[in-house]
Specification:
- By secondary structure, this protein is α/β, with parallel strands linked by helices.
- It has three domains: 255 residues, HUPs (Rossmann fold, 3-Layer(aba) Sandwich); 130 residues, Isoleucyl-tRNA Synthetase, Domain 1 (Orthogonal Bundle); 47 residues.
- The strands form five sheets. A five-stranded antiparallel β-sheet has the order 5-6-7-9-8. It has a four-stranded parallel β-sheet with strand order 4-3-10-11, with helices on both faces.
- Helix 2 packs across helix 3 and helix 9 packs across helix 10.
- The radius of gyration is 26 Å and the shape is elongated.
- It binds one RNA strand through helix 1, helix 5, strand 10, helix 7 and strand 13.
Length: 465
RNA sequence: GGCGGCGUAGCCAAGUGGUAAGGCAGAGGACUGCAAAUUCUCCAUCCCCGGUUCGAAUCCGGGCGCCGCCUCCA
């Protein structure tokens, strides 16, 4: 039985979807004013694993991720550069989707954009106004949290505590109460705006997620995710708005991932520990190693990224890929052999443990240990030469089954240029003639090009890096 | 100040009452022309102090240390 840790009550609960066999999933997406950083991708990877595992478990998932394409920083940049907000965000939207592909993140069913859902947001404001949740001040519309009795249900932040915080900053917009949040922001001079019944302005950030999730998933849906920093105030405010409108329970399961740290500290540009996916790739890290590093840690634990930990993840990932390669070679060899009962038992155990651990709030670290245990035991059996092609095929199917969720076993295009191909041939000839000096010379040369050679009984095998 | 989380081997990281998964790194052995890959062996008593219990990394209390949120930052 699948269980999730629900932020709302801080407990693990069995997952019961609203509709049998289906799962509605909303995940807070990027603000597209810059390249997403690796911390953002931790959240998207966690959500990808969640979505993949739900599908693995037979759920039909409707996954919606928003693109925040209008907010203060975007508007500021547009004003500074003289471009439209759409011109400012377009390149980063493209980059975002490229990065998703790089990390083998499955596409959501919908990527609604804030700018295309202004009407839905206005409609919510209208309803909230009619129900007495809002007030207007200087052209902006605010949500009065006092009117929503359950405010604080998700985060545990009690309204009366918010004010005691030392860092309340409300100088930009005047509110009745610093704890209230804005639904509609009056435009300032030179800013992008929409002409509406509430005046010229733009939507507040929290509103878009409520409007779009309700539009695509309904007033009630199963799962809503984001990074831990979204718990308060963003998701707390979403609940207030959404439930204020509908009068119904908005979301049944709130899942949040902890932050990714770099060298033990929160990423920030000023500390110089700020990485985009692209900058890590430039340092030579393999995208699948980055993916494995992130998904093989538990999503509710802080994750500390260091160059060493990425390197270690690469080694671990290589172990998986080396084994997979070995299995594929065995399949291709067309060897007949009686079925290995031991291997069958290990395969069954691997899948059983994998499911058991993933069912337990997506315990990917333990799920991966089930995989590694299998790889070790299977390698041992393969060493004995006792596995036939047919059973190797079954082993490959098991790996693929696991990878439906992990998504780390994406292979590189297996292309070698002619020069490298010739060098490998030349080295094989040299080895035959026992000219090991030349053979080693070539191996070192190729290593310098990032190509690693392994001499196996079946012949030479190569891989990158 | 308020809310929440964490502290397990050199590093990463599971494990929430019965005598510590897994990965990386390291040492040694097997295999190999040498490597690589693979495999075998070795490598912790769980921040500190009390308490509960037949029994605690796991529960309770108190410390110490670290982190996040309370700013439209996943």
């Amino acid at each position: 039985m699948l269980h999730f840790h629900n932020t709302e009550n801080n407990r693990k609960e069995p997952f019961k979807p609203l509709v049998e066999g289906k799962a509605g999933l909303y995940t807070c997406g990027p603000t597209v004013y810059d390249y997403a950083h690796i911390g953002n991708f931790r959240a998207y990877l966690f959500e990808d694993v969640l979505r993949r595992y739900l599908e693995f478990r037979g759920y039909e998932v409707n996954h919606v991720m928003n693109l925040t394409d209008v907010e203060d920083k975007i508007i500021r940049r547009a004003r500074e550069t003289g471009k439209t907000i759409y011109e400012c965000t377009a390149p980063y939207i493209d980059a975002f989707f490229e990065d998703l592909d790089t990390l083998n993140i499955k596409r959501a069913n919908q990527y609604p954009r804030a700018t295309e859902h202004i009407e839905e947001m206005l409609s919510m404001i209208r309803t909230l106004r009619d129900k007495g949740f809002t007030y207007e001040k200087d052209g902006s519309i605010y949500f009065r949290i006092r009117e929503f009795k359950e405010y604080g249900r998700l985060s545990g932040v009690r309204p009366e505590d918010v004010l005691s915080g030392a860092r309340i900053d409300s100088d930009e917009y005047e509110k009745d109460d610093a704890r209230d949040f804005v639904l509609w922001k009056a435009k300032k001079e030179g800013e992008h705006f929409w002409e509406t019944e509430f005046g010229e302005g733009r939507p507040g950030w929290h509103l878009e997620c409520s409007a779009m999730s309700i539009k695509y998933l309904g007033e009630q849906f199963d799962i809503h995710c984001g990074g831990e920093d979204n718990i308060f105030p963003h998701h707390e405010n979403e609940i207030a708005q959404s439930e204020g409108c509908s009068g119904k329970k908005f979301v049944n399961y709130w899942l949040h991932c902890r932050h990714l740290l770099v060298d033990g500290e929160k990423m920030s540009k000023s500390k110089g520990n700020f990485f985009t996916l692209r900058s890590l790739l430039d340092k030579g890290f393999h995208p699948m190693a980055i993916r494995f590093f992130i998904i093989s840690n538990h999503y509710r634990s802080p994750l500390n990224l260091t160059m060493d930990s990425l390197q270690a993840a690469h080694s671990a990932w290589s172990r998986i890929m080396d084994f997979r390669q070995r299995v594929k070679e065995r399949i291709a060899s067309n060897v007949e052999a009686p079925k290995q009962i031991d291997l069958q038992r290990e395969m069954d155990a691997c899948l059983t443990r994998f499911i058991e651990h993933m069912d337990d709030d997506l315990d990917t670290p333990r799920a991966s240990s089930a995989l590694f245990d299998f790889i070790r035991d299977a390698n041992k059996i393969f060493d004995s030469e006792a596995v036939g092609s047919k059973q190797a095929q079954e082993a490959l199917e098991l790996l693929d089954r696991v990878d439906e969720t992990f998504g780390v076993m994406k292979e590189d295009e297996a292309l070698l240029d002619d020069e490298v191909d010739q060098l490998i041939q030349e080295r094989q000839d040299a080895r035959k003639n026992r000219n090991f000096a030349r053979a080693d010379e070539i191996r070192d040369l190729l290593a310098g090009k990032g190509i690693i050679l392994e001499d196996t009984r079946e012949g030479v095998r190569w891989k990158r890096r």
